[in-house]
Specification:
Blueprint: H1 2-11, H2 13-44, H3 46-51, E1 55-58, H4 74-80, E2 85-99, E3 105-113, E4 125-127, E5 138-142, E6 157-160, E7 163-171, E8 182-186, H5 187-193, E9 204-209, H6 215-223, E10 229-232, H7 233-246, H8 250-279, H9 281-289, H10 294-329, H11 338-355, H12 357-364
Parallel strand pairs: 3-8, 5-7
Antiparallel strand pairs: 1-9, 1-10, 2-3, 2-6, 2-9, 4-7, 6-7
Helix pairs in contact: 1-10, 2-7, 2-8, 2-10, 2-11, 8-11, 8-12, 10-11, 10-12
Length: about 375
């Protein structure tokens, strides 16, 4: 049956290539959209993951990291006195307007990190180090924003909210989720660049339990402070992801694109298989006349679908890796993982088998006597 199926496919090369193009398009589109979605979710919680802090203390009802409220200064000292707290790290997240050397403007996310403790932010540097951010006016920029910021060099001066800032370090692949560049600096420098922020106030407290204390115990104790939300890193990450997926419509747009890719592939393969079946009705009728049953004919059609699926899958996945690399070069994070690659085989096979249903129905109604007409 496999041999017959393969001969049916190779008999009309133009039709075969048309079907393969449809499958390849569907595989690339669905893989790209799922990879884009995973990259989307990872970037939405990137700062939270990179911080390494098990607990986050936030103003009430903060929906995501990019839009924080303000925590009062004395809350920091109160948190230090909570039983079970080992380390408290202050963090400020605010937006600034950066005036580039060429005179143009760019919105940026200024993140003040607490250099008085052993912070893990930013996680990696392309050039420079956290120590360089202690200097007055010092800020970092990311290597992925090199072109966007006008190809600056370390030591160049820019303006942040009409205040002079010096580019003192370069972070490595700290890509911002909302495309506004990440600029890291010390807490002291943030107050200088953002004068409307009251001195000592911050956006978040990052808490690490002391040895011997569980995250749940420390979280329970922190909630007694009142007027704040206390979330695990995983909970805060999910809250940020849910905001961008459900409250902005981004999740629906990506899901719709995946569905369209699946439908397009199914329609193209289905049309190819059905037209191929119609062209060979007499051959199928002959097989029935000499004793072949419907299950055997179904296997021929199913084998055709699976051959298309296997060939289209291999070429489509290869194309997906190429598109992912191109996207990375253009600044879009697309994650193509081993589980995604494996899962796409079953998606492709299911798509092609679904496309063969019309052909199966047509063969089931075929009368052997038609070969004598």
């Amino acid at each position: 049956m496999f041999r017959i199926a393969l001969k049916n496919i190779l008999h009309d090369r133009v039709r075969m290539f048309a079907a393969l193009l449809g499958i390849i398009f569907a595989v690339v589109l669905v893989t790209f959209q799922i990879g884009l979605f995973w990259g989307f979710l990872k970037n939405a919680a990137a700062i939270i993951d990179y911080s390494g802090a098990p607990l986050w203390v936030t103003p009430p009802s903060v929906a995501n990291f990019e839009f924080p409220g303000v925590l009062r200064e004395n809350l920091y000292y109160q948190a230090l006195a909570v039983p079970g707290v080992g380390k408290v790290e202050r963090l400020i997240m605010t937006f600034v307007r950066i005036h580039k050397p060429d005179g143009s403007f760019e919105a940026a996310q200024l993140i003040g990190i607490d250099l008085s403790v052993d912070t893990r932010l930013p996680p990696a540097f392309f050039r420079g180090s956290r120590e360089d951010l202690r200097d007055p006016e010092a800020v970092s920029f990311d290597i992925t924003d090199y072109e966007k910021l006008g190809r600056p060099r370390i030591g160049d001066y820019v303006e942040l909210n009409r205040k002079r800032a010096r580019l003192a370090a370069v972070t490595d692949n700290m890509r911002s989720f909302i495309a506004s560049p990440y600029l890291f600096t010390s807490l002291e420098n943030v107050y200088r660049f953002r004068e409307t922020l009251p001195a000592g106030h911050m956006s978040y407290l990052l808490v690490t339990p002391a040895p011997g204390w569980t995250i749940e115990e420390v979280a329970r104790n922190l909630r007694r402070l009142g007027g704040v939300d206390v979330l695990t890193a995983a909970e805060f990450g999910r809250r940020c992801q849910a905001y961008w997926v459900f409250r902005t419509g981004a999740g629906f747009a990506i899901a719709l694109s995946m569905l369209l890719g699946f439908v397009v592939g199914t329609v193209i393969v289905g049309q190819t298989l059905y037209s191929s079946t119609m062209d060979r009705l007499k051959e199928f009728g002959t097989l029935k006349a000499i004793g072949a049953g419907n299950p055997q004919l179904y296997r021929i059609i199913t084998h055709q679908a699976l051959i298309y699926a296997a060939a289209g899958y291999v070429l489509g996945i290869a194309g997906s890796f190429g598109v992912a690399r191109l996207s990375a070069a253009m600044g879009t994070h697309v994650i193509v993982t081993a589980p995604l690659v494996g899962g796409m085989f079953f998606v492709t096979a299911g798509m092609c088998i679904a496309a063969s249903i019309l052909s199966v129905v047509r063969v089931a109604k075929l009368e052997p006597a038609m070969v004598f007409k």
